[in-house]
Amino acid sequence: MTYATVRKSDVNFGDRMTLRGGEKKSLANISVAQGQAFTVYAAAEVVAPAGAAPVYPVAGIEWGHGGASLRARELRIYRRLRFPVVASTVSVSGWLVDDKGQPPPKTVLCRMAAFIAPGSDGETLRNTNWISQSGPEGLISAGPEQVLTIEGYAAQAPAARWLMVFDATARPANGAFPALACPARRAFRRDRFDSQGFRFGVFWAVSSTPITLTFLNTADLRVDAEVLT
After folding, report:
1. 0.85 exceeded by the pTM?
2. pLDDT, tens digit, 9 for 90 and up, residues 54-91
3. CATH for 5-118, among 2.40.128, 3.40.50, 2.60.120, 3.30.930?
């Protein structure tokens, strides 16, 4: 494998480190002359004092080619993270956050390991994030998203109601046509095999009519949404 001359000294296929509190450390990086398939793997073990608030290990992954690069959202590590990319440069960093996205105290530590392997391992695992909400409406995301799954159930007796999902950051006026909809009389689920894109945001609301929105503010649904990271 031939490495790009200007980045040769920066190549590090992987490392294992201990993080404390709000520390952020580089775990792995690689730079080659030509773009190719790589798979990033990461695992982490959090050690916190008894009674401490939940803390999550996070990986930041940036990959690119030539003078351009992309950065993934914060990827929380649950048991094992796998992230496939095609690029000529890949870098991985790690840090910790609490359930509000803030750095934890220095009394919390994490043993984190990550490495970058050339090629693809053939697994079909996707890196996704689940968002759970309840009520008659909710904002899943205030920005662009690729949605894979919408599922949930009604907390009330069966009735004529429909879940409607809009490409928006707020509930539109009655009469709006949804980007995605499904009956919500009981349990419901809608899947998109290769995801459905939302340009502005993802907002859901319960409707008493099936084609366009007639907002039903007395409804109570649990809604779980799966989006690509």
Report:
1. no
2. 898 999 999 999 889 998 878 888 778 888 899 999 99
3. 2.60.120
